[in-house]
Design a protein that fits this description.
The chain is of the alpha+beta class and 200 residues long. It is built from three helices and twelve strands; from the N terminus they run αββαββββββαββββ. Strands 1, 2, 3, 4, 5, 6, 7, 8, 9, 10, 11 and 12 form a twelve-stranded antiparallel beta sheet that branches. Strand 7 and strand 8 form a beta hairpin. The protein starts with a helix and ends with a strand.
Length: 200
């Protein structure tokens, strides 16, 4: 490098360092892994749908540091935080539901998770999607989102840790309107009963 180039670089570095950050940047424009769980109720006689509901979510990876109970407690105790990664986790239902006994009217909801300050209780958080959308709040800012209500979830034992967030909706063949919502993520597994009002 020439002396002139070195002097030029030394003079311009402070100027470059003082450049203000741009007011707006974009991120996460690449492919994002998302999961989906759905239950569809079909009228076999009329060959049309009775109704359905679905949960769409980003498959957040479990981090090794969460294996430390103290670190996981610091992250979760007494907090409401995003469920999944990137864009909001969404519940979209066109049938009435009862989740843990709480009525959920047909509509679209953003979802989050909450843990009590003592760490003993977990809740599924239902967020007003329309208001959140109008406020342009990202899931990263979940503490700013307007909460409609919360429903309790049961903590279940974990046999095998789950590497990425997995949400399932399961039911017995003879009782398809009694659905079990399960959230599995790393060493955390939560569940809630879902009663569906649908069909004849």
């Amino acid at each position: 490098m020439s002396v002139f180039a070195s002097v030029f670089l030394l003079l311009t570095l402070p100027v470059l360092a003082q450049q203000p950050k741009p007011q707006m940047v974009a991120e996460d424009g690449a492919f994002q892994e998302r999961g989906s769980a759905r239950v569809l109720y079909w009228d076999t006689k009329a060959n049309t749908a009775f109704g359905e509901f679905a949960i769409d979510y980003g498959r957040q990876a479990w981090r090794k540091e969460y294996d430390d109970p103290a670190a996981f407690d610091k992250l979760t105790k007494g907090k409401t935080y995003r469920l999944g990664s990137n864009y909001w986790t969404i519940l979209d239902t066109n049938v009435p539901l009862k989740v843990s006994g709480t009525a959920v009217a047909p509509g679209l909801y953003y979802l989050g998770l909450a843990r009590s300050a003592d760490g003993d209780k977990w809740s599924l958080v239902f967020i007003d999607a329309a208001k959140t959308r109008s406020m342009r709040v990202d899931a990263y800012q979940i503490e700013r989102a307007p909460v409609l209500f919360q429903v309790p979830m049961s903590l279940e034992p974990v046999n095998e840790p789950v590497e990425k967030l997995t949400i399932t909706l399961s039911y017995a063949k003879e009782k398809p309107k009694d659905v079990k919502l399960r959230i599995a993520w790393g060493k955390l597994q939560l569940s809630a009963p879902v009663e569906v009002t649908v069909g004849p």
